[in-house]
User: Fold these one by one.
Assistant:
Number 1:
Amino acid sequence: MFDSPVCPVEVNPGLEKTNSCPIQTKNNPNPGSEDTHLPDKDERRNKRKKSNRESARRSRIKKQKHLEEVRSQLNQLKTENRDLLNRLRYFMHNCQHAKMESDRLRLEHKVLLDKLLNLRQALVLSPAELNMCMR
């Protein structure tokens, strides 16, 4: 009928027995529950905040632990890498030394082979030919 904030009970006190004010019912179904509702809401919010803080703390601890594990692994890998580089240098040095020794032995082999061929030829030559070669 009218858009008035006035409750029908205020206009007609006889309605009070059968029907309460709809405006009051919508805004506050239990007048005493508003006081208890806020502490429950605050309590839930505080529990949620506490839970979130605890979760964040656990997350920070987990992250810190992971960081320490990664740093430890990094140090271990650096040590392993340094050891592998030292071994590589050692083997490269030995390889170079072996190559030089191999080259020296090949040259010595060639020299000795040439001497052997000369000696074989000398044995095949007659004594007269040998005298001519010696002069």
Note: The chain has four helices and no strands.
Number 2:
Amino acid sequence: GLCEEACPKAAVYLQADKMAPPRYERDEFIYGKDRLVEPVSPDARSKRGIQLTPEQADKLRGQMQPA
């Protein structure tokens, strides 16, 4: 638990329903980006309570204004 407590954003969080399986070899602990990143739909983000930063919200508002 220290990473998710120290992270100022909602980028790091624990998921109780997803536990890492046990590993027995040292090489099995090496994770590449393909194993660390999983796609998240916008609906799933909102269900987790992840909110936009003020900068992100301003950027989105600027993109949505009619030209």
Note: Helices lie at 2-6, 33-36, 42-47, 54-64.
